[in-house]
């Protein structure tokens, strides 16, 4: 069943923060420190390969977790749920930064997770390289076409729909869009199906292929492969391309480190 829901794309008014520096866009005031910290984290991690390369059509940037979801006393359809205005204002600050950082080439999108824990709502900020994202939809049109998605579909619509889809379709969609090789996506989906079907929920044996980022060599841009699988030419191509981009970033980054932190917006502008 295809879930329908509203995409969180409405423009909201941002609460002013007198203690932080701000920059102005067309009709909004944006927290510059927040924008720099968000972008700095993205560049130091796997989003580098979305922001400065085409390896990853999309990447995770920031995980958020706020007490804005229904608690156990609330019912489906209740009108009053999120009653903490300060938390909503925090989310809105991130929404404003996402809008300010987005342009013709990249789009920053904040997507709420379907699952909740008690009254906690998890949200994730992603950055999307629009042309690479569209190419991936085209490459796997026989999969993404089931929702009517085409290369011209707004990425925010794609992400919001697949987040609320069934488990295996959700996993496959994210796998493709995060830039993992097709064989790794196939293995991840099928291995998880096998694990769920197993009475002991035993994890299918696997190895991992890790691509380094500035923050570390493992645990970020990493994908699973069958235990007996030997990395092939495609894996080597991804690794070498990423290593080249990372080396360039490492050389340039030191010039933008100041006592107040990394001047990430200026650095990203230089790298484009």
Question: What do you see in this structure?
Answer:
The chain is α+β, with helices and mostly antiparallel strands. The protein has one domain (27-248). It is 42% helix and 22% strand. It has ten helices and nine strands. It has helices at 32-44, 48-51, 85-101, 130-139, 141-144, 155-163, 167-177, 182-197, 233-253, 264-271, and strands at 22-24, 29-31, 58-66, 106-117, 120-129, 206-213, 216-226, 257-258, 261-262. Strands 3-5-4 form a three-stranded antiparallel sheet. It has a two-stranded antiparallel sheet with strand order 1-2. It has a two-stranded antiparallel ribbon with strand order 6-7. The longest helix is centred in the C-terminal third of the chain and has 21 residues, at 233-253. The N and C termini lie far apart (40 Å). Residues 1-27 have low confidence and may be disordered.
How many extended strands?
9
Strand residue content? 15-25%
User: Largest beta sheet, briefly?
Assistant: 3 strands, antiparallel
Summarize model confidence as the mean pLDDT.
88
Poorly predicted sequence stretches spanning 5 or more consecutive residues: 1-27
Oligomer: single chain
Briefly, what is this?
This protein is α+β, with helices and mostly antiparallel strands. The chain has helices at 32-44, 48-51, 85-101, 130-139, 141-144, 155-163, 167-177, 182-197, 233-253, 264-271, and strands spanning 22-24, 29-31, 58-66, 106-117, 120-129, 206-213, 216-226, 257-258, 261-262. Helix 7 runs antiparallel to helix 8.
